[in-house]
Amino acid sequence: MPRNAPLIAAALTGAGATSLAGGAALLAARQLNGPRRPDLPYTFTPFELGVDSEAVDFTAADGATIRGWWLDAPGAERSEHVVIASHGFRGDKSQMLGIGTGLHRAGASVLLFDFRGNGASDDGRQSLGHYEQQDLRAAIAFARTRRPDARIDLLGFSMGAAVSILVAAEDPTVSRVVADSSFADMHGVVAAAAASLRVPGAFAHLVDLATRRRYGYGFSQVRPIEAISRIEPRPLLMFHGTEDSVIPVEHAHRLARAAGTSARLVLTEGADHCGSYFADRTGYIDQVARFLLADEG
């Protein structure tokens, strides 16, 4: 789970502070969409938390190999739930170990995976929530091969939350969704990052144009606000910190208004980006487990 996620703002720092020219926009677009991996090639695994896991891989629609960990629930032959967890921008599956192992201990089979260009997965074409939807769809297909009769639930943080909303809106086989710190629209979150650096709002439009030309998609194609109503009547639980410095809390309010009556928004007072988990780890895991593992009625 992301411990801190100032990366969208950081992606714009050098470019936005230097110039509003096309070159600066291209640099910012590359920071958002180009390959970049952490310096250290190793990380924590389920081993450190005493949970058995299986290294797995599957292929996204465009050919990118996605790698993850499969955590089989105790008595897995009887398990009725699979939770697929999606990390945030420039994160990796190890950041989902806290909530992932917590849900595993609560009785779910859990799939943690790296989005393309992160962790152990192939590079592929990267973005801020556009191409990554292919990875989550492939994860769902993989989970179906392991548990054909299980209920599939999605859990995501930050960009992973936005991707979970977008994919669930188009896939009626997804039963429940937890979305923590999602943005409502890509343009809005990039503009907010620019504003935090005192860069004029027009800069986001320049980055959008550069992204279209260089990376083949536009900000208008990543708008959870337009998709979220299609999750209804399936249950949707959202979390957001009231002091989120990366994705302003107004994104959560907009999503909640658009989501319909089957959605619930939990605000964590004083929490920064993805801070609800860290404000009360045990309470958070218990709340999510009760929501995702509840019987359908």
From TrEMBL:
InterPro entries: AB_hydrolase_fold, DNA-binding_regulatory, Hydrolase_4, Pept_S33_TAP-like_C. One of its GO terms (molecular function) is hydrolase activity. The keyword Hydrolase applies. Residues 80-189 form the Serine aminopeptidase S33 domain. Residues 219-293 form the Peptidase S33 tripeptidyl aminopeptidase-like C-terminal domain. Keywords: Hydrolase. Pfam families: Abhydrolase_4, Hydrolase_4. It comes from the Bacteria. This is Alpha/beta fold hydrolase. SUPFAM superfamilies: alpha/beta-Hydrolases.
